[in-house]
Design goal:
Structural class: alpha/beta
Shape: globular
CATH architecture: 3-Layer(aba) Sandwich
Number of domains: 1
Number of helices: 9
Helix content: 25-40%
Number of strands: 9
Largest sheet: 5 strands, parallel
CATH topology: Rossmann fold
């Protein structure tokens, strides 16, 4: 399948302290954002900052996008928006088409990530787990480190999400550096191992970032 590049529509679910600046940087990179958040004020602020569409339903958001990013507090919240709190009613899964991609950047568990990925694969939906490191400041200035786990074809298809150039002094929409680690779920184990020391990274391949420059 073709790479997902600007001006593709990207869903973004979870527009809090981390999600808001991440969505804003993606919009600056040329992506069209389709936003969703249970907090109406957070949703309004994100729409004002990004020009995002806000269809109001998860199903409608997924129907409009080639890929959806989740940035939520934990794996339980991710599972609720993807599968539905009590079934597939208003959920991302209800709106995903075959070939869609879920990119989970939340703080989910490795086991839960693998199980969710298997459920999505049954419907022809790919999943990348892509936890981040760096906090709110780095989310705002697009210097996050992102650890990506998933199959090589999907990683390649979505690579521009993490590495395409923003038209600003910063070089990328989301990250300073990215590690790919396979299989799905391994990036979350890697992130946990990395917390004591940055030197704990022993697996994966760095996606080297070009030196930021003004467009």
């Amino acid at each position: 399948m073709a790479s997902i590049v600007p001006p593709a529509r990207i869903g973004f679910v979870g527009l809090g302290r981390m999600g808001h600046p991440m969505a804003r940087n993606l919009a600056r990179a040329g992506y069209r954002i389709v936003a969703h958040d249970a907090d109406r004020d957070a949703l309004r602020r994100a729409c004002d900052a990004t020009g995002a569409e806000a269809p109001g339903e998860l199903k409608a958001a997924a129907e409009r996008c080639e890929a959806v990013i989740t940035m939520l507090p934990d794996g339980e919240a991710v599972r609720a928006v993807v599968l539905g709190p009590s079934g597939p009613g208003d959920s991302l899964l209800a709106g995903f088409s075959r070939g869609s991609v879920l990119i989970d950047m939340s703080s989910s568990s490795p086991v839960g990530t693998r199980e969710l990925g298997a459920r999505l694969a049954e419907r022809g939906v790919a999943m990348l787990d892509a936890p981040v490191s760096g906090g709110v400041r780095k989310a705002a200035d697009a210097t996050l480190s992102i650890m990506v786990g998933g199959d090589a074809q999907t990683v390649a298809r979505c690579r521009s999400r993490f590495s395409s150039r923003v038209r600003s002094a910063r070089g990328t929409p989301l990250r300073r550096s990215t590690i790919t680690s396979r299989p799905r779920g391994s990036s979350r184990r890697s992130k946990r191992c990395s917390r004591p020391s940055a030197s704990a990274w022993t697996r994966g391949t760095w996606w080297t970032s070009s030196t930021p420059r003004r467009a």
